[in-house]
Structure formats: C-alpha cells, structure tokens
Amino acid sequence: MKKIMNSVVLLAFLIILLLQPAPIIAATKTGFVTWAEKVVPSLFPFFVLTRLMIYYQVPQLIGKLLTPLFKSLLHLSPITFFVMFLSMISGNPSGSKMARDYYDQHLISAKEMEGLMYFCNFASPLFILGTVGVVLYQSTTIGYLLLIAHLLGSIAVFICCYPLLRSKETIRQVTVQFPNQSFSAILIDCIESSLQTLIRVGGIIVFFYIISETFNIIEITQLFNVIMHPFIEDIGLPSIEPLVAGILEFTQGVTKVSQTTAPLQTKLILTAFIISFTGLSVHTQSFMFAKNLNIPYLKYFIMRLLHGCTSALIVLLTWKTVLREDIDVFLPLDSTPSTVDSSLIPLTVVLFASYFVLKLYHQIKIRVKHKLA
Hints:
By secondary structure, the protein is an all-alpha fold. The chain has one domain (21-171, 179-372). 76% of the residues lie in helices and 0% in strands. The protein contains 17 helices and no strands. The protein has helices at residues 2-19, 21-55, 58-73, 78-90, 94-104, 110-119, 125-136, 140-165, 183-217, 220-227, 229-234, 241-248, 250-258, 264-277, 279-287, 297-322, 344-372. The longest helix has 35 residues, at 21-55. The chain crosses the membrane at residues 73-95, 116-136, 142-165, 186-211, 268-289, 301-323, 343-361.
C-alpha cells in the first residue's frame, strides 16, 4: 500500500509539473542558485579539510594527547568531541559526514554514531551572523543573539544524547598510522569525495524547493493558513507560508520570515526555531550519511524539535534585554538584497568540471594499470 501511495504522489507531481511548468522551473533555478552561492563555497573547504584530517590521523593525534582529560572529566571519546566541535564551526551536514567517515574508519562505535547524528546539527556561524544578522536584519546584534540561542539550545539535545555519547566502548586506546600514498593522490581522492557529496546535497536542496513551490500551487499553504488562523493572528504573522517554507528548507524559511510585516519579537522567535530545527531538507541531507545504520528518524526529528523550541524560548526570554535600542529591521521588498551572486556560479561550474575531469583521469589510470598488468 505504501509503495502504491508513493507512485500516486509521484504521478501527481508529474501532472503538476506538466500543468504549471513555469513556477516549478523558477523554484528549481532558485534552489540551484542557493546551492551554488551558499552551500558549495561554505561546505567544500570543510569537506576536503576533514577528509584530509582523516588521512593524516589528526583526530587520532588529538585523541592521543587528550584521552586522559576527556576520559576523566567528560567520559567522552576525544574523537567524539572533535566531531562535535568541528560541526559547530562548519555547519550542516558536515557533522553527519564526519561522524560517518570516522565510523567507517572504526574510530567511533555505532552508539556514538547515533548520538552524533542527533547532536551534530548546526547552522554555520557565518550564515547566522552574515546572512541572517547583517543581510536580512541589518544588525550584528541580532546575529549574535540568534547564534548564542542556537548554541545554547543544543545543550538540551546534548543532555538527551549523552548516554549514547558516553558509551564506554568508545574510550579505548587510540593508535596512529600515517598514510603511504602521496599527498597529490590523497588530495584528489578528498576532492572527488567532497564534490560527489555536494552533488547529492544540491539535489536534495533543489527537490525541497520544488516541494515548497508545489505546496503553493495546489494551495496546501492556504489550507494551513485557514487551520492555523487563530495562532498566526495571535502572534501577528500575516501568513503561515514562511514557517512552512522553513520547515521544508531553512534558508528559504528565514528569508521569508525576515520579509514579513510581523512584529520583531515574532520574527526573531520563528527565525531561531527554523535555524535550529534546520528543515526537512537538512534532515534528508544528514540521513544520507546514516545509510545501512539502524538510526530511527523519529528520535532525530524529536531532537530537532527540541533544539528548535529551546532556541526559540531563549530568544523569547532575552531579546528585549539584548536589543535595548530600536532597530529598523523591516526592509522594503524591492530593496531586499538579492540572494543571487552570479559571480559564484562560474566558480561552482569550474569546481564540478574539475570533478568530472578527475573522475575521467582516475578511470583512465585504472584501465591503463589493468592493461599493463
């Protein structure tokens, strides 16, 4: 029955695409531009760097030095803390990717992998401070408020995940073995792996932009407006659309929330929730790295809700104290800075052209070796 329903839904999507191609194509273009402009430049360096760290045993070296400290104070594996710390800096879905890489290298246990999947879901600090704070709200103070609420909100998730992260089997002797391959060979492998992951991430982002636009076409968002009318009226939100968009894809959601005419308090609370909830698009990206692992999505979803609600509550309790001065955060729609930076599109194209060239070179090299053998 479930497979039949999936087929029906896909057929409905096809019909909508044939009947309303223009908005679907526009949503696809917006999703691709968002990926090329914001996701690729921010995640590509971290993906390559963390992969290089795995090859050159950086987590093991840190673990060798800090094992006594983490074992006695936190009862955490140093590699676990290393993944948690880097995920806070690099943003989604880097934490899940690092956790999977270290799990595949047998550096963390299955229980620890599950705990890291629940915990390591952070928006990039640069995104919160730069895009949300400066661009959308024209205030670095708001950016810092949202960032602090986002980080403090994760404490509730950490407390819930601690029994998994504290697993005694992860606190073991760390061995260091440096690679035998040349640096150029390792770097090419890291670049290929990172670009392949970014292609998958980009596909997921574009897909959820299409879903969001489809909801508007078939008027599901309008139906939510009718159902939730008492709630959105109480908080001064003119439409439920920004929240629905944020639940699906958080970048699109926080942008739409900032452009509404709702009170500043409402906008900041919703923005804090969306950033920490991260959106179903990021959920899908993170679970891409949980393939063949018995990690329940329901628990993951509950942790995202907990993070989002905790961050929103922190903003609710502190925003008046932090924002003592009146801040003009309402930008006219025609003067809102565009999210499109066309100069980054050629850079993305060059990166992925390089990926396919490296892939072709790698295949030719393998065939030559087989012939010589």
